Amino acid sequence: MKIRSLVTLCLAAFAFAAAQAAVDANKASQAELETVKGIGPGLSAKILDARKAGAFKDWGDLVDRVGGIGPGNAARFSQNGLTVNAAAYTAAAAPATAQQPQPKAAKAGSKAADAAPAARP
Question: What are 42-84's pLDDT values in tens digits?
Fold first, then answer.
């Protein structure tokens, strides 16, 4: 009886590991992409459309080219089994092209510029 339980436990562990197998964004079919938690038909179609232009070089390339995938989603999808060229997402893999918003300078004649006290002679 103990051997049967041990064999059953081993088979269950193997099945669980197989279910958690990595899905590579450069090789997966639409159905395979949709096995990753959080990726549905719409997003998998976007990934496949972007892939038609060429394989994704890395996670940063995937984030740049696929609308709907930002650093947060990339991290979540990676935790759920998605890879790019067999690599998991890391913060260092974030796209280098992401630009930080720049503060706008006050225009001459704007309320902010007009609100400044005038210099006294």
Answer: 999 999 999 999 999 999 999 999 999 999 999 999 999 999 9
Question: Tell me, what amino acid is at 17?
Answer: A
| Residue boundaries of the structural domains of the chain | 22-95
Q: Structure tokens of 63?
A: 């984030």
Could you tell me the sign of the dihedral formed by the alpha carbons of 44, 87, 90, 60, in that order?
Answer: negative
Decide if 25 contacts 57 (C-beta within 8 A). no
Q: At CB < 8 A and 24+ separation, what contacts does 113-119 make?
A: none
Question: Residue 83's closest CA among 16, 46, 28?
Answer: 28
Q: pTM for this one?
A: 0.63
Fold of 22-95: DNA polymerase; domain 1 (1.10.150)
